[in-house]
Protein: DsbA family oxidoreductase
Amino acid sequence: MRVEIWSDIACPWCYVGKARFEKALGEFPHRDDVEVVHRSFELDPGRAKDDIQPVLSMLTQKYGMSQAQAEAGEDNLGAQAAAEGLPYRTRGRDHGGTLDMHRLLHFAREKGRQVELLDLLYKANFAEERSVFGDDERLLELAGAAGLDTDAARAVLADPDAYAAEVREDQREAAELGARGVPFFVLDRAYGVSGAQPAEVFTRALTQAWEARPRLTTVEGGAEVCGPDGCAVPQT
Amino acid sequence: MRVEIWSDIACPWCYVGKARFEKALGEFPHRDDVEVVHRSFELDPGRAKDDIQPVLSMLTQKYGMSQAQAEAGEDNLGAQAAAEGLPYRTRGRDHGGTLDMHRLLHFAREKGRQVELLDLLYKANFAEERSVFGDDERLLELAGAAGLDTDAARAVLADPDAYAAEVREDQREAAELGARGVPFFVLDRAYGVSGAQPAEVFTRALTQAWEARPRLTTVEGGAEVCGPDGCAVPQT
Structure:
């Protein structure tokens, strides 16, 4: 069974939702038969690389919150994160574009290090003082810590076309599947879960998708097949 | 919709079956929504890299055919290939191990050049005089012609571990899905087609799988989601 998770590094509910999903998956009896793929969803797609701003001022300016509302929202997120055992800095975080991080995550997926890099990016963004935005060296340190070759990762960052098509394709698919926000979880392309729902909701979705997973119905034809005993020759 | 095709470069029915499948796909109304992925299946898995032998003597020695039977089998395959417009040398081809080619095909998949490389490997093996076995320079020429970076392809060939796990995983999945030979086609993990069946069989399978393709049922929860309008804060 395959679970695809659309998310953004700048999305606090994605950070929290991933932990809730993983709690459910960790207790799921068929967890070893579940493949998890992380997909890209930029919350702020056109944002220039050097357009970095404190989260709290982004919330007041872009969404018209009062300072008190913005702080209360961050406090609430901090509490929800803490309930999942996740560190979260409710003050002093930055907001910025995440395209380069998504490109690196696609590169990491090819190398089998996607979830390692994603976890490090989340932790760096939500829990550590040094900003992840506008700092390629920071991203390369994280890539190295995730087990990636830093020279290869540097080449990915330096080439804006590298893995950009993959990011766009993920976003196109998210829209096609009806995702209006993230996190967005899709199980076997049959069951979707929108948002950082409680672990029990993920458990139900995993169980339901597992029970309904497609069984293969195979059309066996004549003899036109090659196997360990050679290539059969049909009667002509 | 996703179609996975397990095959081996040394498998004549795979070469023919791919053409039949593509004929059906080319006429399928939803062809632009069909993603095709080629997967590895070594017909002769443990075969040493330098263990190369003429196809006809392999057929007589390994499968105990008479020379006349072996030649008749090749003539039949040549006729089936010709009916699909595919060139096929019925005499003088070699047989050998294909692990390195499968490793290269996984590398090519990452670079978006898988089908280009597969087509060139098939053509080289079935239609051209120079053997594809035991000749790294030949494989690198084909990789270059498929649009791959030949230095990177050379590094893949030089490292026996590169993409070897991916080849093994493909083979494990083929066994799990019940493939006893190749070509083996799997549509959305729900419909299988075994063998180089007529195009009409593929058309029926495509139509059936398309009509039965999963529609997404999404659980929308509370507000714990981030979207273009910011991250909603649930009432607490």
Q: What stands out?
A: Residues 2-211 of chain B form a domain with the Glutaredoxin fold (CATH 3.40.30.10).
